[in-house]
Structures are given as C-alpha cells and as structure tokens.
Fold this sequence. Notes:
It comes from Streptomyces endocoffeicus. It is built from 22 helices and no strands. The protein is mainly α.
Amino acid sequence: MTTVSSDPEAPTRRLPRIGVRPTRKATAIAFFAWVFAVYDYILFGTLLPEISDRFGWSEERAAFVSTLISAGTAIVVLGVGPLVDRLGRRKGMILTVSGTALASAATAGTVNAGYLVGVRSLGGIGLSEQSVNTTYLNEIYAVTEDKAIRKRRGFIYSLVQAGWPTGTLVAAAFVAVFLPLVGWRGCFLLATFPAIVIALLRRGLPETPQFELQQRLRRLHREGKADEARRVAAEYGVDETPSAPLLEIFRGSARRNTLVLSFAWLVNWFGIQIFSVLGTTVLTKAKGVSFANSLVLFIIINAVAFAGYLFHGWAGDRFGRRNVIACGWILSGVLFALMLTVAHGTVAVVVLYSLGMFFLVGPYAAMLFYMGECYDTRCRATGTSFINAFSQPGAIAAGAIATAMLASGAHWDRTALLVGAVGTFLSGFVMFAARRVDTVEA
Length: 442
C-alpha cells in the first residue's frame, strides 16, 4: 500500500519495477530465514522440560523463567521496527537473521537462569524476522514484474509465513534425532550455521524502491531542499511530510488497526504460548504423552499446521484477510477446548490438536500481509513490529496466569483450557473490529 498524496494531481512517475528473478529469490530467502528464526524460538519451548531437568527447576520456576524471557523479548522486538524504517529493509533483514544466529549460539552456553533470560531475550531480534519480512515483501510485491505473484501475493506470502510450522517441525525433528547425540546445547548450535549463511545471501538482495524514495525525500529535507522534496513526492504521489514513524501509526486511518491488531495479537498469543511454544509440555502434562512420543506427535501436528498457512493465504486473497483471520481463530479455540475436555486416546488428541493448530497459526499467513497493507512506507516496519511486539505481553500474561494456576494446584489440562483455548477464541472476535484494507499498487 502506498501513501496517497493530498495533491489533487495524479502521479506522473512510477517507482522502478523489481524483476521476476530477484522477487522469487527474495521470497525464497525470506522463507528460510523465518524457518530458522522459528527453529531457534520454538527450540527453547520444546527443550524447556530438558533444560528444567538439567538445572533442577520446578514447573512453576520453569514457567517463571519463560515469562521473564518473554518480557525481555518484547523490549527487543519493539525496538527493531523504527530501526528498520531508518536503516532500510535489506539491512534490517540482515540484522534479524544475524540476531537468530547470535541467540542460538549464546543459548548453548547457558549456565544459570539469569544468563538464559538475557540471551533468550536477544531472540527477539530473530522473532522480528516476520515483521521485517512482511514489510520488505509487501513493498517488493507491489512493484514486481512477476504477474503471478502480484495476482496471488497473499497466497505467495503464506508460503513464506509457513516457515513457522516448518521451523517448529524442524525443531521437533532435530530434537528427536540429535538430543540423544549432542544434547540440548548442541541442538541450539545447529541453528547458528544456516542463519549465518542466510545473512550472507541477503547482502545481495535489492532495497525496496519505496524505501529508497523515502530515503531521498529525507535527504532533501536534511539539505534544506523542502520545495524539491515536495516536487519529487508529487511526481510519485506520496506524502513527503517528515514525521516520526511511531506517531504515524496512531494517526488517521492507521490508528484503529494499530489498536485492534495489537490487542488481537496479545490475546491470541495466549494460545500460541500454550499450544505452540509449550506444545510438548501440554502433550506430556495435560494428555499424559511421554516426552519422546510428544516430539513425534508434534511433528505430525505441525505438518498439518503448514497446510493451514497455505489455506489461509489462499482464502485471504479470495474472501478478505480480516474475516479469514477472525473465523480461523474462533474455530481454533473451539477445537483446542474439545481436545482438552473430550478427547481420549492418541488418535483423537492428534486429530483435534492438529486441526486446532491449523486454524491457530494458519491465519498468520493472512495476518502478516494484512498488517503490511495497513501502513504506508514511512511507518510500515514500525507498525508491523509494534503489533508483532504485542505477542510478548501476550506470552508474559499467559505465562504469569499459567504459573499462578499451577502454583495454586490446577492441572495442565485446566490451565491450557482457560488460558490457551479461551484466549484464542476471544482473539477471533477482536479481529472483527479491525478495518478492511484495500491493496494499492505502487
């Protein structure tokens, strides 16, 4: 989406086009970068039972450590967006994947809870990968010469965002195979090397024309050439008024979606924290599955979740992203509630858990691209990162509530129901308050 100038004259120039090959290369690299960012992020939740046993932590202490990490992650995520709106999309993507490599390597050297909280907070740089991806690809897809991608941009982006279940699946598979061989520290080290390779590959990607234009306008203002900046902006039909990106996301039509989507993310992450990040814990503690079997089942569950991304990306293009997101999360809450209350036996648990994940994480394929469409170039990375950062207050609240319930004697099945399933269900209704967004070609 491009910002429409208040000048009544139509734009006389258009932004440079991005070729088919660089567009597809950027898409592929974005997918693998997100896979390994998720691998690092989910690995902590998957291995939390093992880490807890190694350091002798109780369930309550482990949940408290996870909550502190979420708080640190939120602070880091919140700072990435404004940085990317200043430095550029390409540099931002190199930063995020480098952060993934750093967090993984540092986690392998964990010596105590305080150290773990510090280094896992750095994982917020990698978690910002999805907001930087959606900012970059939203702008690239608006000016690409690839007609197939322009026509189905939401579905194509769903392939990138499907890196979440893929990364989760890879994490579970690697733990199942390598935990007996290299231990939990070695599993974190495995994420370091591919992240470094991706960071090097990203150095060859082009910057988006939208950001380059904004950079040019800022430079003209710094040089005192305000009249020339207005002329250039009018030629391209964009707003050249200097502004702080963090203020822009709370102005005009952007304000409503900033508030609604932030709250939706916060509440939905009750479900993400319980059923995705702590999925192995739910299976072992709430449904009585052994840790080894929980890894195998989690692989199956996330394979189904991958299909959820593709479905919701396609459905978002066809039926509108907002409604698809809302309906998906409502269905997910119902399915998880059924899994926790009426499902007995491995087959019933896996089927309902898989369908719950299908409708929990799948809508994020539509959500991330929808977020990018809500803002203009000046504040797109800030807006998407700001909303993305609300995942961590959601994780903090979910962790705090879960810790309190467990400490008071509640079992994991009841805790997961009241925190995860109810939170997911509520987030779907919140989404209906968001504004519809029309896609505008650049």
